[in-house]
Structures are given as structure tokens and as C-alpha cells.
């Protein structure tokens, strides 16, 4: 049946409403297909031949081009018509009142996700009211697996798809970020090796993969030859993604170099595959001063650039710009050229810099001074601290503004870094100046550091003897920037043309410490047979060294401690201490675990809108920090472990209760933290109980794995009387656990006897962080083995069966 629709005057009145108008304007773009449109009756005069949503019969077979639904009137549509639409069509337009659905294969952008939240309620209503046969025909079959079967199936997928040989000659085994190279990268992360190693420390899994945990720990040790635990390794890589000098882009193993040579601006960023790549440093040529025939000559080198090129030569790329120095009394006369060259190599993370002043024939420039360095510091980070290394190899650390200008003579190394950023996330810019450096100075604006200049001086230059200075630069994220000698050595690391070690420091130090502690625990129990004593000694020495460094770089007395500590990292350090204390009960590890637990409690901050809720903090300087679901759950995991270990504690119980209360169950209907909305309930956290913007969700499934692991331990501590939690908190905990389990299993697939937990509900595969943490959360066998908790009974897991490819 086709409705006649309102008259033209009625249509004009309808379109005076902005929501109706925007719907009309969108549908007008489909005017050539009006015979296959479904629109509300008030718009039928504008779209002759359209039908009402309530009049649809078998809409899939009829092949409508678009179906406009009023959000407040969807229950008037037959459920057997609406349900298949919601499965097979996608939203292509939405506002506060309407949603337009179109076939999934229709080209064009998706709808604004801020207005598509009603789809969740529509789907729930349609599924409930549609005929059972129709619902059954669209339901994915599931397999019921025991906890042991599920854990084995998840672990075997890691061993099959993610564990890989680094190279034929290294002998190292690592965990690939993804089964297949992602975005052209093949990185092996040290912290992910630690996460997988912890899982495979479980004796039942170690029996199936006897040496895997130990070999992954070998990788972590290979990444930490001295004090730093380096972030990852990867193959040599050099790709010119754009050779346009005005918009160049060059990728090396762990950095992206880009910029505009015509403006003398070269920027660098650390490479990631998850959206964190951003410019963190800008290199600039600055100025030249000299004298010619007794007259001063001054030149802004960036403003005087007249030529530039990107030159790719085998495993090297040179970025070059050339400036002209002219006679100030006769600008038509060229006195010299200044060539700045930045060199990149396939097997190094450093960038070499050369500045060459070449006078014209019969010209001698005297008293030359050039000031290349860094620019835009106030825009790219929070650089505030300077570490320098003198000829005696003694490091000096001071506030950058308070210590500049500074003599650079005999200064083989300097680093400008962010002292207020989270440990593991602070940016450092390292430079090894040439011998001609005389001074280091600051560029400021309103007492804010905006640039850093290295002053190089030369007595004279001619065409035959140009004035040339060279230095080497390196950009890292991480920390421990007081270890100047170690970073100096990284700058001078020549590379070997093969596999490269990321000079940046791991931000998940706690994970690596925890993996080693877990292996030592099971190794000491005889679970791995006869372990050579020197292996135990070596691993404990490694653990103690890196634990000591971690302690040395904590800043518990800093103001706003909740913004100065990476909570997730601290939580895993506490877990590691709790574990290794079981091996060495008299070594003081337990006392340190108590002190760090108190520090973790100090990071708790109340949640607005509920005096009984609190979040564990972590953030960035000069910006409102946002709670992270993974940090919250890691903190609860550490506190839950301590609750299972220590005598009952009122402070611990209160902190856990507040942390659990801060977790909510919700269906995120809009983007948050850059994550897509979901169409199902999950657990969320925010600074305010009424805050729907700054909210972190269970979009990434590894966070749900951490949550479940914490919930299991807290529930055990409460059940055994070690943790006094009110009944309401325990009931909420059970609801959170059930919601997190169901949300996580939505991202799980069972195929060929293996379970893959995808990184998110709408992702296509798992990765090296998601799979182990999901396994540890869904099946808490490792924590039970560490605490000697009887296995008990576990409900079977219902996993979606994925059809064979």
C-alpha cells in the first residue's frame, strides 16, 4: 500500500523542524530511487511512491534503497520485518529523531555514531518479538567448552599463530604483534612476550610447550642488556612513503620522519599501529652569523632556502636543503651556500645531521657561528629537564630553563626530556654534538621553553676548506633519562643491517618483572623438572636489578601523585613482588610489596556523583587526566592478590570496594577515547558517574580480560573471609563479572579446535596482548596455582563457532 501523504502546505510545516529537514535533505540525494524508499508518512508528498515503514513486507526481498525509521515509533513496524533489516542493513544517516538504514553493500559513509544508540534498543525489541524460527535462522551456533578445554584452545592459537622465530641466526623466539604483518610492520614487543610468558608459566601449559615461557623470557633479557628494558625489536626497514620535498615522509624501523624541506622543518614521531603516532620533535637550522671583509653577515637559514631534495641511496636516505648567504650590501652577490643534510638508515633509529658552509670563489667568511637545534618544543611536548654528560662521563640533571645557557665544550651527550610525564611515556630528545660545539642555549616565549640551540663556531671558511659540523640525534619515549651513558651508547650504536632494537624503553616494566617472577616461582617448585641453579640465579639477578631501577625512578613524594605514576605498571610490579616473595620469603620483597600497595592506594581519587566510588589515577601534565579501564582493573587485580595474601585489612577492603563501585555497566552509544560505540552492555569507567564523554569502556577486550582476572581474586578473598565486602558490593561484582564475560565472548571465535579472542567486538583478529590476557581472565588457573587455590567447579564457556574458511 502506498500512502498519499500530506499536502504541500503540511509538508512545509513538517520541514520547518530541523530534524525532519535534515532527513529530507539526505533522502533527496536518493530521489532517483523513490520507488524503493521507505519513509514516514509526513514526507510522502516529497517522495511519491514511497511507502510507510509499517507497511513493509519482506523488505530484504523487495530491495529497498533506504528505510527511514522514527526512533520513537519503531515498535509499530512488524518485528519480522525489522529484525532482518537490523542484521543485514547498516545505518547511513541518523539525527536525534531518525535513523536511515541501507543495504550493507551500499557505498557511502556510515551514519554519525552519536545518534545511532537507539539501534541497541531496536535490536533487543525486534529479537524478542520476531518469530523464533526467524531468530534461530540468524543465530550463530556455539560450542560449550570446559575451562580446561577453553584455556588449551586459546593457548594453542598463540603457539600456532603468534609465536615466531625472530631470525634464523638469532636463536630468539618472540611473539608477533599479529599473526600476519600489520601495516607493513613486523614488530616483536618485549612486554607482550612477558604477557605470553606468564600464561605459559602455568605447568599444564608448560607441559605442552615445555620451553616457550623460558625462551620468551630470554627475549626480554636480550632486550635489556643494561639498565633499560627496550620496547621491541624489528627488522631493518627504510621506506620513502613520500619523496615530495614539501611533504616528505620516510619510515625507519621505529620512527617516521616527515616535514617540509623548503621551510627547513624536519619532524619525527615514534611509530605505532594504534593511532599513537604523533610528531614529538622538530629539527630546525636556525641562523648563521659571520663576517666578510669586516662587515657582519646574518642569515635566517630557513628563510634563505632555495633548493631541496630527498635522495634514496640503497639503505640510506638523505634529506637536504640548501640556503644562500648574500652580501648585505649587494643582495645580488652570493657569498656562500649552507647545506643541511639529515641522514636516515634502515638499521638505525638515529638521524645524522650535517651542516656545511661553502663560500663562493674568492670569498672567505670569518668568525662563523651557526645555531641548529630544536623548535616548537612548547607545541610538541612538555620538555623541561636537561641531562648532560661531561668528559668525565658524569651526568648532570637540571631544569632546562634554569641551567641555560650552558657551555657545550667537551659535552659528548645531552638529552632534553619530559620529567613530568608518566614513566615509560616521557619523550626524550638526545644529541651527540660535534667537537665544534661551544654553547647550548634556550629559545623562550613568556618564560616557556620553545627551542634549543647548539652553537657551533669556526674561525674561517673558504671554497676549498668549508666549515662543516656534524651531530647525531635520537628520539625516544620511555624514561630513565638519568642513565646518560647508556643513552649515549645507543646514539653511537652502528647497527648491523639486520634486526634492530628499539631504543625506547618499555612502558610495561611491571609485566616483564611479573613474567620472570612467575617463572621463578614455578621453577622453584619443581614444576619444570630440574632447573639448572645458574638459570635461577641469573633470572633473580635480572629481576633484582630491574626492580631496583624501577624503585629508583618512582616519585611517591611528587605532588599529584595520581598523575605521576603509571598505575597499570605499578600494579604488575606489586603482583611480581607478591609472587617472588613466595620463593624468597625472607628477602624483603613482601615489605616492598606493602609499601608499593600503599602508594597505589594513594593514587585513588573520588568519582564525582558517588562518594563511595574512586578511580586509580594516571595522566598527563597540565591536562585533566582520564581514568583508564585497564589501569583500574590492574589495580584491583594487585589489591585482590594482596587481599588473598595478607591478613584482613580495612584500608584494602575500602579501596577495593570503592574501585569496584566506580565500574559501571552500560552500553556505550557514542565514541569515547577514540573507540567506537558498542551495541551490547560492557563495563565502563569515568571521572563522574554522570559523565558520558570521558569514559573508558570494554571496547578493547584485553581490558575485559584484566577485569575478569581481578574479579576472580576479589571474589575468592571475600568468600574466604580475607576481604570484608558489603553484600551490595559483592552482588555488583558478580554482575560486572557476568557482563565482562559475555562482552568478551562476543569477540571470541571457535574454529578447528582453537579459540581466537579478537582485539575488539568488531575486529578481525587477535593480537599479542589480547589473547594471553583474555585467557588469564576467562580461565583463572594461573592465579589459582600461584595461591594454591583448589580448582573447584567452573561453568562451561559458550564460544561462537566460526565457519571454516
Summary of the model, kept short:
The chain is α+β, with helices and mostly antiparallel strands.
What does this structure look like?
This protein is α+β, with helices and mostly antiparallel strands and 805 residues long. The chain folds into four domains: 8-137, no CATH class; 144-229 and 506-553 and 747-805, no CATH class; 235-501, alpha-galactosidase from lactobacil brevis (Beta-galactosidase, Chain A, domain 5, Distorted Sandwich); 554-745, Glycosyltransferase (Alpha/alpha barrel), CATH 1.50.10.20. 32% of the residues lie in helices and 28% in strands. The chain is built from 23 helices and 39 strands. Strands 10, 11, 12, 13, 14, 15, 16, 21, 22, 25, 28 and 29 form a twelve-stranded antiparallel sheet that branches. Strand 12 (255-260) and strand 13 form a beta hairpin. Mean pLDDT is 88; it is low at 1-7 and 619-624.
Q: What's the arrangement of secondary structure elements?
A:
Elements: H1 8-15, H2 18-28, E1 37-38, H3 59-62, E2 66-70, H4 79-88, E3 89-94, E4 98-103, H5 118-129, H6 132-137, E5 142-145, H7 147-162, E6 163-165, E7 173-175, E8 188-189, H8 190-200, H9 203-208, H10 212-222, E9 232-235, E10 239-242, E11 248-251, E12 255-260, E13 265-270, E14 279-284, E15 287-292, E16 295-300, E17 305-313, E18 316-327, E19 330-345, E20 351-359, E21 365-370, E22 373-375, H11 377-380, E23 385-389, E24 395-399, H12 400-403, E25 406-407, E26 413-417, E27 426-432, E28 437-445, E29 448-461, E30 467-478, H13 484-491, E31 499-501, H14 509-524, H15 533-552, H16 567-583, H17 589-602, E32 604-607, E33 610-616, H18 629-645, H19 650-661, E34 664-666, E35 682-686, E36 695-697, H20 701-719, H21 727-745, E37 748-751, E38 754-757, H22 770-778, H23 781-787, E39 797-801
Helix pairs in contact: 4-5, 7-22, 8-10, 8-14, 8-22, 10-14, 14-15, 14-16, 16-17, 16-18, 18-19, 18-20, 20-21, 20-22
Amino acid at each position: 500500500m502506498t500512502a498519499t501523504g500530506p499536502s504541500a502546505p503540511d509538508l512545509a510545516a513538517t520541514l520547518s523542524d530541523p530534524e525532519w529537514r535534515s532527513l529530507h535533505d539526505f533522502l533527496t540525494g536518493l530521489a532517483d530511487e523513490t520507488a524503493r524508499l521507505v519513509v514516514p508518512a509526513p514526507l510522502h508528498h516529497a517522495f511519491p511512491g514511497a511507502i510507510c515503514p509499517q507497511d513493509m513486507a519482506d523488505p530484504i526481498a523487495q530491495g529497498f534503497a533506504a528505510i527511514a525509521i522514527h526512533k520513537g515509533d519503531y515498535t509499530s513496524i512488524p518485528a519480522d520485518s525489522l529484525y532482518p533489516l537490523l542484521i543485514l542493513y547498516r545505518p547511513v544517516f541518523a539525527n536525534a529523531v531518525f535513523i536511515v538504514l541501507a543495504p550493507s553493500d551500499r557505498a557511502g559513509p556510515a551514519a554519525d555514531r552519536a545518534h545511532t544508540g537507539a539501534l541497541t534498543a531496536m535490536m533487543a525489541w525486534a529479537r524478542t518479538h520476531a518469530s523464533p524460527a526467524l531468530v534461530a535462522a540468524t543465530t550463530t551456533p556455539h560450542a560449550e567448552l570446559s575451562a580446561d578445554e577453553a584455556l588449551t584452545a586459546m593457548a594453542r592459537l598463540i603457539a600456532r599463530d603468534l609465536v615466531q622465530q625472530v631470525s634464523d641466526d638469532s636463536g630468539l623466539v618472540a611473539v608477533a604483534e599479529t599473526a600476519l604483518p600489520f601495516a607493513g610492520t613486523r614488530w616483536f614487543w618485549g612486554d607482550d612476550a612477558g604477557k605470553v610468558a606468564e600464561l605459559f608459566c602455568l605447568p599444564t601449559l608448560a607441559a605442552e610447550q615445555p620451553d616457550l615461557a623460558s625462551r620468551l623470557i630470554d627475549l626480554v633479557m636480550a632486550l635489556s642488556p643494561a639498565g633499560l628494558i627496550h620496547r621491541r625489536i624489528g627488522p631493518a626497514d627504510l621506506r620513502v612513503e613520500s619523496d615530495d620535498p614539501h611533504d616528505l615522509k620516510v619510515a625507519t624501523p621505529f620512527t617516521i620522519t616527515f616535514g617540509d624541506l623548503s621551510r627547513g622543518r624536519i619532524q619525527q614521531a615514534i611509530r605505532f599501529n594504534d593511532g599513537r603516532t604523533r610528531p614529538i620533535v622538530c629539527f630546525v637550522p636556525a641562523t648563521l652569523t659571520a663576517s666578510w671583509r669586516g662587515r657582519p653577515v646574518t642569515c635566517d637559514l630557513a628563510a634563505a632556502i632555495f633548493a631541496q631534495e630527498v635522495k634514496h641511496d640503497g639503505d640510506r636516505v638523505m634529506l637536504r636543503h640548501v640556503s644562500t648567504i648574500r652580501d648585505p650590501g649587494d643582495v645580488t652577490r652570493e657569498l656562500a651556500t649552507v647545506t643541511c643534510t639529515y641522514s636516515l638508515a634502515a638499521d638505525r633509529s638515529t638521524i645524522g645531521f650535517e651542516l656545511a658552509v661553502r663560500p663562493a670563489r674568492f670569498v672567505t667568511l670569518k668568525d662563523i657561528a651557526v645555531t641548529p637545534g630544536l623548535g616548537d618544543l612548547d607545541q610538541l611536548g612538555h620538555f623541561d629537564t636537561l641531562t648532560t654528560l661531561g668528559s668525565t662521563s658524569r651526568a648532570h640533571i637540571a631544569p632546562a630553563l634554569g641551567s641555560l645557557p650552558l657551555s657545550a665544550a667537551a659535552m659528548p651527550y645531552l638529552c632534553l626530556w619530559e620529567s613530568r610525564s608518566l614513566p615509560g611515556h616521557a619523550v626524550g630528545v638526545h644529541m651527540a654534538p660535534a667537537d665544534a660545539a661551544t654553547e647550548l642555549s634556550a629559545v623562550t616565549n613568556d618564560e616557556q621553553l620553545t627551542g634549543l640551540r647548539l652553537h657551533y663556531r669556526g674561525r674561517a671558511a673558504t671554497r676549498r676548506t668549508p666549515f662543516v659540523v656534524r651531530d647525531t640525534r635520537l628520539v625516544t619515549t620511555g624514561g630513565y633519562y638519568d642513565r646518560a651513558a647508556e643513552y649515549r651508547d645507543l646514539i653511537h650504536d652502528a647497527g648491523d643491517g639486520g634486526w634492530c632494537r628499539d631504543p625506547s624503553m618499555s612502558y610495561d616494566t611491571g609485566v616483564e618483572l611479573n613474567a620472570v617472577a612467575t617463572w621463578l616461582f614455578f621453577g622453584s617448585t619443581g614444576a619444570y623438572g630440574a632447573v639448572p641453579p645458574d638459570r635461577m640465579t641469573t633470572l633473580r639477578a635480572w629481576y633484582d636489578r630491574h626492580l631496583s631501577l624501577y624503585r629508583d625512578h618512582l616519585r611517591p613524594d611528587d605532588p599529584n601523585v595520581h598523575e605521576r605514576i603509571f598505575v597499570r605498571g605499578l600494579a604488575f610490579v606489586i603482583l611480581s613482588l607478591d609472587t617472588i616473595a613466595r620463593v624468597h620469603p625472607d628477602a624483603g620483597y613482601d615489605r616492598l610489596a606493602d609499601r608499593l600497595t600503599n602508594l597505589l592506594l594513594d593514587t585513588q581519587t573520588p568519582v564525582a556523583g558517588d562518594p563511595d566510588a574512586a578511580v586509580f589515577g594516571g595522566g598527563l601534565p597540565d591536562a585533566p587526566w582520564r581514568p583508564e579501564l585497564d589501569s583500574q582493573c590492574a589495580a584491583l587485580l594487585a589489591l585482590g592478590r594482596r587481599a588473598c595474601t595478607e591478613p584482613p585489612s580495612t584500608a584494602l577492603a575500602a579501596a577495593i570496594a570503592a574501585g569496584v563501585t566506580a565500574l559501571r555497566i552500560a552500553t556505550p552509544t557514542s565514541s569515547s577515547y577514540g573507540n567506537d560505540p558498542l551495541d551490547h552492555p560492557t563495563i565502563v569507567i569515568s571521572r563522574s558517574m554522570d559523565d558520558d564523554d570521558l569514559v573508558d569502556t570494554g571496547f578493547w577486550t584485553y581490558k575485559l580480560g584484566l577485569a575478569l582476572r581481578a574479579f576472580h581474586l576479589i571474589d575468592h578473598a571475600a568468600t574466604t573471609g580475607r576481604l570484608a565486602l558489603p553484600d551490595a558490593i559483592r552482588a555488583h561484582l558478580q554482575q560486572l563479572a557476568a557482563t565482562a564475560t559475555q562482552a568478551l565472548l562476543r569477540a571470541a571465535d571457535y574454529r578447528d579446535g582453537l579459540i581466537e579472542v579478537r582485539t575488539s567486538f568488531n575486529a578481525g583478529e587477535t593480537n599479542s596482548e589480547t589473547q594471553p590476557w583474555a585467557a588469564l581472565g576467562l580461565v583463572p588457573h594461573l592465579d589459582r596455582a600461584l595461591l594454591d587455590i583448589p580448582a573447584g567447579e567452573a561453568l562451561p564457556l559458550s564460544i561462537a563457532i566460526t565457519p571454516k574458511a
